Amino acid sequence: MDIQSLQKKAANIRLDSLTAMYKAKKGCVGGSMSVVEILVSLYYGKVFGKPVMKFDPKKPDWEEQDYLILSKGHAVPTLYAILADLGFFDKSELSYFAKEGCLLKGKPNFKVPGISASILSGGHGLSVGLGMAMSLQMDRKSNKVFVVMGDGELQNGQVWEAALACAHYNLSNLVLFIDNNKAQSGELISSVMNIPSIQDKFEAFGWNVIQVVDGHNFDQILDGVSRAVTSVRKPVCVWCHTVCGKGVDFAEGKPSYQRSVLSEGEMLVVTSKLKEVL
């Protein structure tokens, strides 16, 4: 896809995920919207003339696929919207998101086609990705592992144990994306538990750190991806500076929308705005 097509796809994914959350009366608008461009780049973008990720919706257990671990599990409506759009499961399932007995739970569940791992608590995704990447490396497989984390998760000690191990084992087949939206549990991260100079810490732990100044700019994200997938003998952290609630004008940058859903009136305004892009 070209950049304009990716922008339209992002608007479509935003609308589908917001609609799913609205119908469920559950979800995290702020955290789900900030990660849209990152996930759209991974699933629909291309680098060096080839898709960023290898996958086949008709064969969700394909041995040659690349793996995506959504560590920030509260943003799963966005991932579900993408998987439905790609045909991993019927789009009608989005209407039953987070309802009793549904396929699409409120957190990533490996029973859903296209979901690589169940993530029930923040801070676990990098450890899961570490295990996958080590296994693939030992088997001399070329598959890549992509992990997407929120900046708030970096307060977990488990993340840093995994980060040490990733560098120790030279896991260049693992790429970590940080969705740095600066919001956590309805507040600014800086007021909950500040994480200054985290990028420097990854470098000190032996990672290659790539800065994406605008985590909603497809050119910048894909440039970061192209540099990441050609990294040698080091795991890569792609640090994406993002905006909580991106694409929902009245919610952008407001931590109060981090873990909330839209009202009927807000949904009408957002729907009209996003359809202008489609």
Describe this structure in words.
This protein has 278 residues and is α/β, with parallel strands linked by helices. It has one domain (3-275): Thiamin diphosphate (ThDP)-binding fold, Pyr/PP domains (Rossmann fold, 3-Layer(aba) Sandwich). The protein is built from 10 helices and 9 strands. The protein has helices at 3-24, 29-34, 36-44, 76-86, 125-138, 157-168, 189-193, 198-204, 218-228, 264-275; strands at 46-47, 50-51, 67-70, 145-150, 174-180, 183-184, 187-188, 208-212, 236-241. Strands 3-4-5-9-8 form a 5-stranded parallel β-sheet, with helices on both faces. Helix 9 links the parallel strand 8 (208-212) and strand 9. Helix 1 (3-24) runs antiparallel to helix 10 (264-275) and helix 3 (36-44) packs across helix 9. The longest helix has 22 residues, at 3-24. It is globular, with a radius of gyration of 17 Å. The mean pLDDT is 94.
Helix content percent band: 25-40%
Q: What is the count of distinct domains?
A: 1
Number of helices: 10
Q: Which architecture does the CATH hierarchy give at level 2?
A: 3-Layer(aba) Sandwich
- Described by the principal axes of the CA atoms, the overall outline is globular
Mean pLDDT: 94
The CATH topology: Rossmann fold
> What structural category do the secondary elements indicate?
alpha/beta
C-alpha termini separation: 15 Å
Number of strands: 9
**What is the H/E string?**
HHHEEEHHEHEEEHHEHEH
Q: What about the largest sheet?
A: 5 strands, parallel
How are strands sequenced across the largest beta sheet? 3-4-5-9-8
Rg on CA atoms, Å: 17 Å
Task: Return the CATH class.
Answer: Alpha Beta
CATH-wise, what's the superfamily?
Thiamin diphosphate (ThDP)-binding fold, Pyr/PP domains
Low-confidence stretches: none
Our estimate of the beta-strand percent is 5-15%
